[in-house]
What does this fold into?
Amino acid sequence: MSFLGAARAALVGRKCLVRSLEIGSDIRSEIGSEIGSSAVAGIALIGVALLAAFLPSCGGGKKPPVFGQKQNAYVTLPSQGSVLLMQINSLTGAITTAATTPEVVGTSPNGLALLNKFLYVGNSQANTISLFNIASDGTLSQNATPTPAGGSGPHGVVVDPSGKFLLVTNTFTDNISVFSIDSGSGALTPVAGSPFYANSGPGEVMIAPSGDLVYVTNSGVGTVTGFTFSNSTGLLTSIGPPSYSGAGASGMAVDNTGTHLYVANTSAINNPPTSVGNISGFNINQTQGASYGMLSPITGSPFTATVGSGPTALARSPNNFLFATTPGGTYSVWVFTIAQSGVLTPTINSPFSVASGGLFALLDNSGSFFYIGSPTGIQGYIPDQNTGQPVVITGSPYSTNGTSPGKMVVVP
It folds into this structure.
């Protein structure tokens, strides 16, 4: 096997990646700078090849990263009225800042969603949806005049799995807009019946993996509102009264089977009150019929940490860890394993005291790197594959032009 082949084999397992990053700052720094000379490259690859020999149990079936490969990501900057292009090093997870779209005063962009060569951004102050064309190098150019959001305070933005519809929650008008997407131009057209009533103050929105169920959180009243969704017409149909989750219901995630929904309740009071905030777990009814998509509590729900408070954003890893992030840096990242039954169990040493935030939480496309939005920028971590423990990526936190980020997406 070549040195490059051995290096790739060693890096397939994320646990191996953590160990390789820890074997020496010299190798790590050279890999992090994308290996500047052939001599140092040989040394770095020898070191990683040795890891492959001594850590044969590492695997996981994931496609290994390629040296020098980058993933593009986009981050909204609400206070600057712009969108920032960032690039993720696929080997180390380090982020570098690239281009920023021109500032547009009075827009306050926040939620965003990707569809092939298009990026959609909800402007919460202007009550519009901006459409950007994505160039081959990842740079953005705004396409035509922004589309009216169909309501006030657009917040959550998501494209359905078929790529035919865009859904947007409008927090201040208690509804959710659905637009059909022109496959050629990306242009948006409201579907018949849009916007749809979504109870009080809809915020985050999520489409279940099945593609025909939609859930939104109603933070002010602590509920989750569910709909069935037609991927032929874009029609949303309520599945019944909203389900109570907990005070400050915000971020959502589903397990890898698509049968369990989790909701972060930021300000819920626990009994006993060892901490503030918890995570509700729901079973998603999979039986077709009148009750399809309805939610029922998982046994033991809600789930919480023994210390720490205020979970806001959730993210689920490919190996079925659930991450919950809170503001601050003390007991700030909660990590749970998800059982087949949907029950959450804290991993060893969870919660973890690392710099965190509640603006967003997501993993890159390989599940190798974990990013958290905080008022000071983006915190970057490599999650241990056995415990979920977040290990700081060199260079973290990453500045977002000196301002607080809104939301972030990574290009597939």
